[in-house]
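Fold this: RNA polymerase sigma-70 factor
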Amino acid sequence: MEKKENITSIFQRLAYRDDQDAFYRLHADFFPRLFRLVYSLTGQREVAEELTNDVFIQIWQNRRKLNSIKNPEVYLFVCAKNIAFAYLKSIKLPIVSLDGLQQFDLQIERTAEDILISSEMVSRINTAIAQLPAQCKLVFLLVKENNLKYREVAAVLDISVKTVEAQMNIALKKLTSSIPFLLPAFSR
């Protein structure tokens, strides 16, 4: 929750004070996350970098209107998705389904708990995620990697919350069945 308050305060600083430091912080915090979404939709690294930077250019150009944004994080993801779709439309690629979704690996921050996960397990998890159906994979990554709530993912992808719930259920069932989570037996 603190993160969203920080994003809201950054949006306020941009809207009212033209605060360039706030803009640089927003870029540093969100570029990698938005880039992964745009890259997953376009499949082209250079294009994704350019389009993600376009999101931030758009934010700066429209900074006076940012104070009215209710959920800044969702707003950023929707902007990124819209810019990617506009690009795909401009090059006349059909936007039929998410089946062409490019693979990108789950990024795991190194906390004490994460260190316990072996690199082999991380590899198995990434392989299992890559095998998920396209929309299921995108929903899973937005929820788990980007910490968006179901209603926020629904807003970003323009689908219902029930669809997000269904896709997460599918993802979790497939992941738990394909990854053996074996705990060592506790001896007394």
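Residues 108-187 form a domain with the Arc Repressor Mutant, subunit A fold (CATH 1.10.10.10). Residues 20-42 form the longest helix (23 residues).
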